[in-house]
Amino acid sequence: LSAPLNVLLANNGSQHSAAAVRLAAQITWPAGTSAQLLAVVPERLPLGGFSQEMQNHLRRSMVTVNLVEDQ
To answer: Which of 22, 27, 34, 50 has its CA 20 to 30 A from that of 3?
Structure first.
């Protein structure tokens, strides 16, 4: 593969999602490839925002695929 790709990772907090994120982080993608992380959240969360636990989980997921720097 030499053309840039658009990658979509869905993460619902499951072990399978975590495995997919780890796999995606190990792949050498073509230059210019962009990645989007889709977070699937339980419907019991309030519409006004995410819980602190979910925010922490999402941050860890984004760090795993180098979308944000570890703090």
So the answer is: 22
* Chain mean position to CA 69: 13
Residues 6+ away with beta carbon under 8 Å from 63: 69, 70
Q: pLDDT per position in the chain (71 positions), as tens?
A: 588 899 998 888 888 988 998 899 899 999 999 888 888 766 554 544 677 787 777 667 665 555 444 44
* Total-model pTM: 0.53
What is the rounded radius of gyration, in angstroms, for the C-alpha atoms of the chain? 13
Q: Which of 33, 34, 40 is nearest to 18 (CA)?
A: 40
E-strand spans in 1-71?
A: 6-11, 34-39
